[in-house]
Amino acid sequence: MADQVRINKYLSASGYCSRREADRVLEEGRVTVDGKTAGVGDRVGPGQIVCVDGTKIFNNTERIVIAFHKPAGVVCTSSKKDKDNIIDFLHFDERIYPVGRLDKESTGLILLTNDGELTDRILRGRNGHEKEYEVTVNKTLKREVIRAMEQGVPILGTMTKPCQIQKLDDRRFRMILTQGLNRQIRRMCEYFGCRVLTLKRVRIMNIELGSLPEGEWRYLTKEELSELEKSMKGQKFYNDRAKSDETID
After folding, report:
1. Which residues contact 36 (CB under 8 A, 6 or more apart)?
2. Strand order in the sheet with 36-37
């Protein structure tokens, strides 16, 4: 039927999880539609009851996107098993989860949302979305090291993609990445014998950390969401709570 959608899309649109995570819970047999276990690739239509682990899932939740200045020590996971998880730190009134992650010891900008579709689109590596960081290392960085780092570094069995680096002083620089390998910046610095002392993400695509205080969050503005929409090749999304007057690593 034309008004049916794939079950993984239904779950991600509900804000329960990302589409990739939805495939996982489906494979584990934890999802039912009208009381029958659903599988990957199944479709669901209006009026059908979708449950995960016996809890009914609704897909008409208001869409939320927020920017959060993560302090060091907070873990970017929605798992309650970690006592330092980002969800408990925020105590947000509605179910949201982080878009990607920052290391526990890193600080700076991270987005959180109840929109699984948005999460998937931002995190797809092939889209080459920019993320910008401020980094301090424990020793002077020579210009030849910066040039080599910009061209690509062999880590985790692959070469990192070319990146942009702006030297701020002898031990500080700004880096713009278009990929997010595990602890990428730290590993890149370690390759040249440097240890990262501080790492702060200051931008994700067009979203700037700006003067947002550490430990605080804000809704994205309508202007920011509009620019995100353009960068997502016209795939529309919205945030009814956005206010126009608000201003892996």
Report:
1. none
2. 36-37, 31-33, 50-52, 55-56
Q: Which helix (H) or strand (E) holds 227?
A: helix 222-231
Is the pLDDT at 3 greater than 60? The verdict is: yes
Residue 97's H or E segment, with its range, is strand 97-98
Alpha carbons 54 and 16: distance in angstroms, whole number = 13
Enzyme catalytic residues? 103
- Reading phi first (left if > 0) and then psi (alpha if -120 to 50, else beta), residue 152 is in left
Measured over the CA atoms of residue 76, residue 78, residue 81 and residue 83, the dihedral's sign is positive
Quick one: the chain helix, strand, coil %, rounded to 5?
25, 25, 50
Taking only the tens place, the pLDDT of each residue in 178-231 is 988 999 999 999 999 999 999 999 999 999 999 999 999 999 998 998 898 788
Tokens representing residue 19 in the block = 């589409």
Helix or strand holding residue 121 (H, E): helix 116-123
Higher per-residue confidence, 239 vs 3: 3
pLDDT in tens, 123-133: 775 667 899 99
3-state secondary structure of 86: helix
